[in-house]
Design a protein that fits this description.
72% helix
Length: 111
Amino acid sequence: MDTKPNCKETIIKEIYDAVDLFERKNQSYSDAWTKVGKILDIIFEGETIALTGEQDYIVMEIMTRKIEKLVRFLWQTIGSGKDLVGETALDTLKDDGIYSFMLLGYLKTLK
């Protein structure tokens, strides 16, 4: 008897697991990723911004994550988000702090 998992069934299971995770994260965090885009558009007043090198990309990456953490935190504490993925609002707040220190350390090493 063949006991190896069926590849097609495994792939389908992984797809369904990913859909379930997406749905739970979206319920926990809302569609934070789209809200980040809206927030950045407000910050830059609709202007096109130019990232001109590694430093700009790193700063933008970390700040984008921090904005997403803010959206998630607010959604879970003031909005209707619930922890369905094992990441509480307090975990999100800690993540934001870590990103702040990452950016602080990075920028201080540039001097």
